Amino acid sequence: MISIKALEYLKGLAEIQADSISGGILYLFIKNDAVIWRKQSKDFKLNIFNIGDSVSVNGVTARAEKEKRTVIENVPRSLYGMRLRIIAEPMVDDSGEIVGVFSMVFPRIHPVGSAFKDFAPILASMFSEGVFIYTTDLEKIINIQSSKKFDIPELAFEAKFNEDFIAYKAIKEKKVISEKLHESKYGVETLMINSPLFDEETGTVVATLGLAVPKGTAANLRSMSENLDRGLTQVAAAIEELTASASTIHTNEQKLNDEINEIIILSEEINKISSYIKEIADKTKMLGLNAAIECARAGEAGKGFGVVANEIRKLSEQSKSTVPEINRLTDIIKQKVMEASEMSKSSLSSSEEQAAASEEITASVEEISTSAEELNNIAQNL
């Protein structure tokens, strides 16, 4: 118990200390079951125990006065909307009679909440992409720590949350909850983790600690891998068409090469026919010459036959003269065909190489596509 003579000293000390106590404090002097003096710090915003208010006859103050001893009690949230710790100290006069109670009311904050301002800035600096850290009670956000690279204005100090918010789910399920949120929620794909905080005495959930981490790198990586996969699919389809086209070209080139070989054979046959025509022309000429000799011997009677013999010789000469021209043209055709054949063979070889290269590219694209899929899986897990 404290002497009533120390009351003014305690009031003066309260005035000095009130705003320097972390979490806030409320000092009270209660006499005759009513509050007659109070000092509240700026950080303590609960509107309770105002001057003139009566106190409960079953409360901490009444017990301290009745039992004539210091009473410390933890008050649940259900009573004043906040977990409190109240210390009630009886004050006595010179005769030892209790003349009032000096009380101190502290908000009961989970140790994580109490240390938030100390560890949160350090923790925030450890995330290269930025992070948003916060704590909540059972209804609203009570601490926030953003980083230069990432902030969530929607999660403001003392903002109340609804059943869709991750903290509500962590409180209800009493376990750590993690969610991946689409970029439409906070402007960038976000991973949110929320952990319930338990009362060290009762084991009930009294608060939560949450982290929101932007997953821009993972989203970009996944987008790149998806674009790469789509691009590779298109390339693979184009190469498949190219391979089919190369195969068709190869088949056509093969047929063309076969046709050219047949033309060469026909050219050789034409040369044989030309030789045969020359041979016939030579024999016809000889027959015409013999006919002319016989016509001369026959005299007047063989004149008509002589005209025929003469025409036969002319026809023989004409046939003979066309043979070199036929041979020349045939040789030109043969030469051109040979050149075309060489080109066809070269084209055929190139089409074979193209088909082989297309198959190799297709295999490479499949490997890259597999890598892109693995890259996408890695991005999903980031």
TrEMBL record:
Signal peptide bounds: none
Q: Which residues form the Methyl-accepting transducer domain?
A: 218-382
Matching entries from InterPro entries are given as: MCPsignal_dom
Entries under Pfam families matching the protein: MCPsignal
Q: What is this protein called?
A: Methyl-accepting chemotaxis protein
Q: Where is this region: Disordered?
A: 343-363
The highest taxon in the source lineage is: Bacteria
Tell me the organism: Clostridium saccharobutylicum DSM 13864
